[in-house]
Amino acid sequence: MSANDINVSSKFSAKKKFGQNFLTSPDIPRKIATSCGADENIGVLEIGPGKGILTAELAKVSRKVVAVEIDTELEPYLTENLSSYNNIEIIYGDILEFDLKEIIKQKFGSMDVCVCANLPYYITTPILMKLLESGVRLISITVMVQKEVADRLSAKPGSAEYGAITAVVNYYSDIKKLFKVPAGCFSPVPKVDSAVIKLTLPPENPVIPKNEELFLNIIKAAFAQRRKTIVNNIFTLFKGSITKEQIANDLFELGFSPDIRGEKLGIREFCIIADSYFEKSF
Length: 282
Ligand code: SAM
Hints:
Elements lengths: L21 E2 L3 H9 L6 E6 L5 H9 L3 E5 L5 H7 L6 E5 L7 H9 L3 E7 L5 H10 L6 E7 H7 L10 H9 L1 E8 L4 E2 L6 E7 L11 H11 L7 H8 L6 H10 L13 H15 L1
Parallel strand pairs: 2-3, 2-5, 3-4, 5-6
Antiparallel strand pairs: 1-8, 6-9, 7-9
Helix pairs in contact: 1-2, 7-8, 8-9, 8-11, 9-10
The structure holds S-adenosylmethionine.
S-adenosylmethionine (SAM) binds next to strand 1, helix 2 and strand 3.
């Protein structure tokens, strides 16, 4: 069976509340599946198989595909479209409610695992954060997201698109934009174009903060109020327990201008700042 055999032109009415924009062109799922890095030895966790157009392509490159779908009304389509594959398991439920560590251990055992998905856009960030912060050892995460989200996630410090999510994603992974996908490749046609990105998770994060929670909190705080300087944002994070003058002085001693804003700082700089506050307070 090829992606051409997948029944995508059925009467199923797509649900906006589940972010259902189904791929209609068979070429795109094939391209995503071959670029996600799955092979005979690497299993794939797919989020939101829809009618199975990408799932089928993933099953051709990997020994085992486990797909989590929230919408049980898609079950007849998935059953019919994927009937000729014996290496696919569909689980019905909300990916955000699952214990990822448990499910990956249960379904893949000692196999290496990557994630591949055309993500529902209304929960792109929570899904990515869950995958990255869960502590599950994934090889990579290859996902289709809105083009502007892809631009934001791969932005460099100092650019307008760079934000807390960019810094956090950079902490956990190396991100690459793979290719753009025009809105016309989906049904229903979304308002914006999409892009496929690949996050490769190294065995060790590129920086090792002394306290990860404080490091992530400082990143999030630095962007909490974009128009404020990092001094003001750190002041708010520490609920006024240190004066703004002291924070400005601390930053100056670390070699940063007190006027600096979060968007100019990369993860190495955030790590230096977080480590210095960790040392001061513990
Ligand atoms: N993979 C299919 C394709 O490419 O045509 C469908 C992609 S569609 C953009 C997103 C899919 O994610 C839908 O099938 C939707 O029902 C499913 N979905 C939405 N929210 C979900 C959630 N919280 N957990 C699991 N699946 C979800």
